[in-house]
Specification:
Layout (H helix, E strand, L loop, with lengths): L18 E3 L2 E3 L6 E5 L7 H13 L4 E5 L3 H13 L4 E5 L3 H9 L4 E4 L7 H14 L4 E6 L5 H7 L4 H17 L5 E6 L3 H14 L5 E2 L7 H16 L6 E3 L6 H14 L7 E5 L10 H12 L6 E6 L5 H7 L2 E6 L2 E6 L2 E7 L3 H18 L1
Parallel strand pairs: 3-4, 3-10, 4-5, 5-6, 6-7, 7-8, 9-10, 11-12, 12-13
Antiparallel strand pairs: 1-2, 13-14, 14-15
Helix pairs in contact: 2-3, 3-4, 5-6, 6-7, 7-8, 8-9, 10-12
Bound molecules: iron/sulfur cluster (SF4).
Protein name: 4-hydroxy-3-methylbut-2-en-1-yl diphosphate synthase (flavodoxin)
Keywords: 4Fe-4S, Iron, Iron-sulfur, Isoprene biosynthesis, Metal-binding, Oxidoreductase
Cofactor: [4Fe-4S] cluster
Length: about 375
Amino acid sequence: GVPELPPRTLAPRRTTRQLTVGTVGVGSESPVSVQSMTTTLTADINATLQQIAELTASGCDIVRVACPSQDDADALPDIARKSQIPVIADIHFQPRYVFAAIEAGCAAVRVNPGNIRKFDDQVKEIAHAARDRSTPIRIGVNAGSLDPRLLARHGSATPEALVESALWEASLFAEHDFHDIKISVKHHDPVVMVRAYELLAESCDYPLHLGVTEAGPAFQGTIKSAVAFGALLRQGIGDTVRVSLSAPPVEEVKVATQILQSFNLRPRKLEIVSCPSCGRAQVDVYKLAEQVTAGLEGMEIPLRVAVMGCVVNGPGEAREADLGVASGNGKGQIFVKGEVIKTVPESKIVETLIEEAMKIAEETAHK
Ligand code: SF4
């Protein structure tokens, strides 16, 4: 017989220090948050705020903006004040922009120890400024910009090298009794990235920001991020995530949200259970699933909708869902909460499902 396996659940979240990034808690006491980064010129305040508004609407919890020039630094006070979600300034080469970002009221600052060469000398001042304004710092190590000293010693950007760089930088802050730190050790290869975060998780209790850096265009980047985040979240590792795609940032938020929803780390909203179709299908399942997804996008209630191509698995899945259709013979049997409520012609399936979804949403709102 089949051996009985213990029920599989995610490991409990790794216990971390707790940070507050603006209004968002980051650490084991808070839900895993979603981040993204604007692609506008930060100095273009209106364009940046517009993109932040789009990210906010798509469910982004925290946004990061690049700060490569004085004009960008000058824009930070306005952006930090007007953004609906906490803004993190991303600083690479100039320690003076770190001070500017803290002064501007940014919710946190990301520094890259590999790129800020003179950074070590200024840690004391940065720690003081950050403590005065309760501004957490992310130490963001990237394989592509690893400290040359570590690169020379380790030969390449190994997991150990990434972790050593991050912990070294964190220790400099700790010397000044500053611990409001979160850490990332990003690599484009999920195998290296996962190992780096596992090592890091064992070596410190700072909250961790997960990311597969330069993950690639949407399709590849989505898969790399999902695989890597899945491997870590399964172990309880990861407190905030950013999916990096060569695609508009709103797509990053959608992917990150879907990854977290898949693990029940954030409430599921719309979930389409659609079959892959096969030789038995009596309806164009792809088209139907796409139309139903498009018609129901943005539903704010948890709703599982089954879209099935025939009567083999159709009624079973449709019955398990909140709402569903099992197609056959040019018709669709519409299920609501397990009951067949009607049978409609194929051309009416999408609109009927949307209608029924709206009814469920209204009922949920009145409960
Ligand atoms: Fe094939 Fe029907 Fe299963 Fe869809 S539900 S994959 S059409 S058997």
